[in-house]
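Recall that a protein's primary structure is simply its ordered list of amino acids. Everything else, from secondary elements to tertiary packing, is in principle encoded there. The following example makes that idea concrete.
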Amino acid sequence: TFSSGMAVVQASEDIIQKACARAAKVWEIDEEAVTWEDGLIKPSGPNAGDFEPMTLADIAKHANKTGGPISGFAQINAQGAAPSFGTHVVDVEVDPETGKVDVLRYTVLQDAGKAVHPAYVEGQFQGGAAQGVGWALNEEYIYNDKGQMENTGFLDYRIPVASDLPMIETIIVEVPNPSHPYGVRGVGETGIVPPMATIGNAIKAATGVRMTSLPMSPPKLLKALGDAGLHWEWCCRPEAIPAIATQSSRFPDMTFVLDHCGHNAGGDDFPSDAARETAFELYGGDVSDQYSL
């Protein structure tokens, strides 16, 4: 919209200039004595003559006698796109058994300059976020030891599908770009940038684990959870209890279901007496009454 919009404006200005020249021929006056105002071609002043204003339709009626069809032309190297600012907010759910991340809610706030067609701008925001979610969670090239790409189709190169995404909410902020005739800013690329960091921060907030490479796919996240002592199979070992206690104090909203740690709801079947005693102290009472940290 930014680049093509500028080209359209300049091509339209070219048409106006040529239409004024055609009117000058009809009126038999100098081109400088003709002006464009409020969609009409008029004499620029009383000294130019007393002529009825002409519309583009009127000019078209005289086209055959004044030079044929009028066409506008513009060739530009668009400059001045101006910064585009965006903020993304996401809620995620992390499955500690598989490492799978589900995006529950996603909101995009972005400065569009001037949203000439708001529905199209919203689609750009949503498309950028959807691409970013794929980049953050799944999309990667896999090569074998011969340097051949092994996931060459969309069956193996995992991109988000409709069931992977919530309805992406959008908030259009309009701060006009002074470098564009209509205040437009580029909106397509900006939305692809924030999702990786946004989802990475959400995963960190949910699990306490900071992922440092993309994609944050289930196998990689599962390994990171295990390394941090947060994977459910690791939690079944007696030495996991102190680590779980540390994590729960740092991240009180984290959920560690007792059944995932090899304990039933009644508090039996702990991996050791020491683990049971530690859990009892950790929960501050009967473990049968505590289902999560």
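Strands lie at 34-37, 40-43, 86-94, 101-111, 168-173. The longest helix spans residues 2-27.
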